[in-house]
Queue: 4 jobs
Job 1
Amino acid sequence: MPFDLKRLAACAASCGLVIAGLGANPAQAPVAASADEHVRVEHLGAKDAAWQGQVFRTSVRVLVDDRWLREHALQPFGRDLGVPLQVQAPWLSGTDAVEAIVEARAQDGPTFALGESVERFDRVGARLVDGREWTAYERDFAWRARRPGEARFEAPHVRVAWSPEWRDDAFQGRQPLDRWDELLRGTELAVRIDEPPEEGRPVEWDGAVGGWSVLARLDREQAEQGDEVVLELAVSGEGAAQAMPPMAPRELRGLRVLASSSRAIEGGVVHAWQLACDRAGRASVIPPRVAWFDPESGRYASSSVEPLEVVVVPAPGAPRNAAPEDRAPAFVVAGWMKLAVAVALAASCAIAWVVARRRAR
């Protein structure tokens, strides 16, 4: 059979087309010249101004083309991430102008690399950008403004490792034919920080800012002499957990401060003082006042808590040792009665002596 070069070339071309067709993926997303056509990062602020001491929030939003990411992205670390991207920013732990506030994080969202750690982002659904639909993931941050001026957040970055082409390996699975690493830049964010006004500022204000409520209570209404009772002051509201604890109660009657402590609760903090019941009788305490600046109304507010009382009974077998405010009136009355009796007796003796002298004459 004669050797036909044209036929052989045609067969080779035909085989080549068949092989290429088997290796191609017709549903594959178009390969981009740069990852920024499929991945973006933004830093958004809930407000453009805040008060010194106020807690405010910002959010890092990552927009991705899910299909492109599945087909071209590489894992940036040894472990698998839900979304194989690394978000970077120099201000993650705070700056001179703002203090980072630790809050509960997302529990159900996919994992990202955030700085050098792995954390979850909330999936917030689709966003339409430039006529295209992107999937949005967000991570919220809480900050407490430290000083007046401007809090400037440098632009965040997202690191993307990807390959334009892949091959299927019988032993290692899907493998990239190349690796491109890109660092995509977002935009800067600036928040103006204002100082609360001096007008109307209470003397007990210590820089606290937020909308708060205050509740005070004693852990019991009756105790024995020598026992301890606990005064609790619960402060709840935005930023309450980061506020300075108030001064210890000073207006004590029959009680004495032994120790103090604070513990965080959901949405606030509880300050507590251990009080010793030194004397039997009715003891009372006026809880310390708490003042704050309310950013919503632009005015100062302070707590107004009524005095709290506890009945202190004598310990078993011990003589009653009433509190001074309980026993003072009785002693005063008894003293005046004794003095009146003595004066009356002296006057009677004097009169009797005078009458006896006159009769003797």
Note: The CA atoms of residues 43 and 60 lie 5 Å apart.
Job 2
Amino acid sequence: MKKTILLFGIMWIACLASFAQFTFVHLSDMHVSTTPAANSDTNAQYFRCAIKEFASLNPKPSFVLVTGDISDIGNMQPLGMYPAITQHLFPPSLINPAIGAYFIDSAKTIPIYFTPGNHEYWTGFDSIHIPISNDTLFYYPHYITPDTDYVIQTASAVLVCMRSGHDSPYGYPPNPELIMGTGLSNAQIIWLRNILKSNSGKRKIIAMHHPPVNAVGTNSDGSPYTASVIADTATNSLQNNRTNFLNICDSNHVDVVLAGHEHQNVVANRKGDTINENLHGGTRYVQTAAAFNRSFRIITVDPAFVNVSAPMRSCLGTGVNEVNSLSNISVFPNPAEDKLTIVCNQKCEIEIVNPEGQILNKLTSNGIDTTVDLQNLSPGIYIVKLKTEAGITVKKFIKR
């Protein structure tokens, strides 16, 4: 992938190859834990597992985009815990990395881009376990990416990555839904308007941590979301320039705004009505549930439309041991049409699972090749979960 990066004021522009159509993966809320021992950090281990799956997707994603809360306490000593994540990226151990300098694959063909969340500003907790926050970032730009707004461009699309701010007010009041992101400055609003106007003929995507429009959705497992009270569309949203931002999205025909923060899956219109991921007409405000719960979405962009996948999950199963693949297991062909062959040269319990975690088929292999009929499955991405005496492994396949 050809990539150049330009710096102009507060605007970084990453120019990708001129794809007629391309896909990327949206993640949010990794929440790398605050344990100093990275190898015992479950959230970081899930991330390592997930990026291996993303690197093997077909079609290969052009990049991975993470909208904030990478570290659980981003300004906590030592190092904001970011090395628990960056040890799994390429090249390792970068200091003050440029935007797009990290990749999820050793061949350095799939960059990963980041925007900061409110947890990036946290420094710790007080004596009664209320978060302590400030308004500046230290470890984030040192280990992850510069603290700036920037643009990813292709011939047919523009993706604007923005900072939506720290907690306001600091700490958690009695009603957590009163916590807002500080939102967007006037300078950010002017910059955003100019970027969108100068790309009027392209598909337009904006990414930030806080949801500009909130609505009640579902948890990662598909159950109803009840973690906090969402009183209205502005709950846990942007404190400053929210209405101006929504008006800019309307007037510039923004296709999709990607966010996280609430740890839920939901798509809404400006009024806060929940809508289908791919409803035509108007900006779609998309939240993707937490990456530490293994949630992600695949975004497909072509000159005519921005397609948002239903919520998906990576590395499904019971524990972190699933990150260890078993070498005597293979699944082919991939992509598959009518039948899938699973090779497991030992006794093996097999489950076919959809992206929402529902088990669609269960089989047992006694060391011989197993053929699975796929004719009743709709096209999409599915998971094969295999249990042996050696442990659990998860493989993904595409049904055409």
Note: The domain at 4-313 is CATH 3.60.21.10 (Purple Acid Phosphatase; chain A, domain 2).
Job 3
Amino acid sequence: MNATTSHTPSIPRIVIVGGGAGGLELATRLGKTLGKKKQAEITLIDCSQIHIWKPLLHEVAAGTMDSHDDELAYLAQARANHFRFVLGRMDGLDRGGKQVKIASMLNDLGDEIVPSRSVAYDILVIAIGSLCNDFGIPGVSEHCQFLDSTEQAEHFQQHLLASYLKAQAQGGVGGDGILDIAIVGGGATGIELSAQLHQASQLLNAYGLDSIKPTDIKLHLIEASNILLPQLPTRLSLATAQQLSEIGVDLLLGERVVEVTQDGVKTMSGKFIQAEIMVWAAGIKAPNFLNGIAGLETNKINQLIVKRTLQTTLDNDIYALGDCAACPWPEKGPNAIIPPRAQSAHQMANLVYKNIQLRLKGQPPKDYVYTDYGSLVALGKFSTVGNLMGNLMGSVMIEGAIARMVYLSLYKMHQMALFGPFRVGLLVISNFFRSRLQPKIKLH
């Protein structure tokens, strides 16, 4: 069954798989230009009906943000911006027939509600992001929670709230470790989740769960490297570690996890960190089905290997961007690839947009040149550390309120790409009043 019901033969079919930051921004821009002018048919495929900016998932998990307040419906975005949305999960690719294969959809009872389908393309963009990489360590997939999707983040929040309510009902934690949380991975996700959970403990206490003191929640952050954020400047890593220590996070650096059990985490040095809730936030990989898909080149973490034009090495009709793409970074060395960051996906989406426009005009594509604007890590509502980079000022470390404002501006830039300045202004006003009417933490 083909999901495309009609097609004008004279215009190209551009299909984007993955509605994350890069994929949705690209679909929106192409829809507002080529789609609106009937110069191309733009289709976005995603396995979810809603979009949440992935860097916000740690806030959803901690309950300090209600996902329903910031979610975007793909169907509404498609209608407003002249592209088509297809709900489904890509599970294969027919390069010869130029068809994206989509798995069948099942309901909660396991009954098929939509059969497997395929969507035809002339130009394909794969932007399906990444998942946490468990590195095959025993017990991780069985006992750890992940934050790869909104559903997983909401599940974590429900588990956390249930643990608090249980502890409240029995008059406190009572030494049974019901609120011990182990987070594996000292990258941005693990660090930001630790800080948000500290903030959540204070808010839940303030909203009446007063049998539990904020100090009753034991947060353990486990990192295999001897320093947090090992890919970033040392001064940023040290400042982050200092602030986490100040809010009571137990930092376990240089501890490589070798097994996860129902009761906790074992490390290579012989330590056992007891925990009721365990979160895996160490490393990434592209989804497994991409590994060697349709004969395309992939690396050991399933990323599609692309040229600097962001076209796959064996098929110029297929582009890849974001975390699922392994793009050369020659400025850093012969084997270096662009790091998986939100700013990378945004820049890649901009280049693919330009290169598709050039392609349709019969002009050669441009190469991707990564610009590192720095890194920011949020440590709770009022604290952020990071470094900004630019041609005039070099690398400048910032923290506190200024860093927090810059961090928040990154999300506004994403919203600006999707909605434009007028609607973003309305969203700012709406969020201002909503934040004063609703609880500061999700309580259900």
Note: The chain has eleven helices and 27 strands.
Job 4
Amino acid sequence: MQLEFTKMQGLGNDFLVLEAPAEGALPSAAQWRALADRHAGVGFDQALLLEPARTAGTAVHYRVFNADGGEVEQCGNGARCVARYLHLHGRTAPDGTVNMGSTGGTVAARVLADGRVAVDLGVPDFEPGSLPFLAPAENANYTLEVGGEHIEFGAVSIGNPHAVLRVAAVEGAPVERIGRALQSHPGFPRQVNVGFMEIIDAGHIRLRVFERGVGETLACGTGACAAVAVGRNLGLLGADVAVHVPGGRLGVHWEGAGRHVWLSGPAEVAFRGQASI
């Protein structure tokens, strides 16, 4: 199978963007893993597969495959790259707006004049069943025993599951150890993305994210939204927050309960190519 792709990235969170093959055959999990290999393949955090729209008013339906070959519900930086891709191919409205379908729901996007892309990732859902998370009731904070430690965190769905821990400083946070252990905790039947948030002030945080099926990434868009939602839910953050991730800075706007969360940042083409699998 010959695949034509566009390699894209948003603050170092990198993606393989490709149109679904016309013959309908898709790469297997093993083939996705081979393509994701940064030495023997193309290398990516997620592959974004573009299929024909399934819902009226949308330009495309995109599916998200992690580097381990597993399919997941949503990817915020990936959504921004899909919107940028559609804009470059003349598939958005003249003002740069577009609606896109995904497993995690419909996403509205705007390609801004300065090249940044903003996406509406819906209403953050703190109900445990939405992640899913096996908790008896919704709370602002939960505690689980992980690796012999009692870990406190907030939990929220941004179309995909997130646990967010507050830390004094992200630089020394045990991202690999705690992230991997909490990600696979039986309390999260479909696993969970784990964010480590350092609050600087009401408008600025630092964040590192251990993504399920990938490991730590340079940026995580839904992780940034999850961190702001958890921090704002605790009364610690304002409506507009600059999220400093290892790859740069993302912007998150969330006015509070029942309102949609918006994510903004750069989305760029790295190169285009072909791969045989």
Note: DSSP finds four helices and 18 strands in the chain.
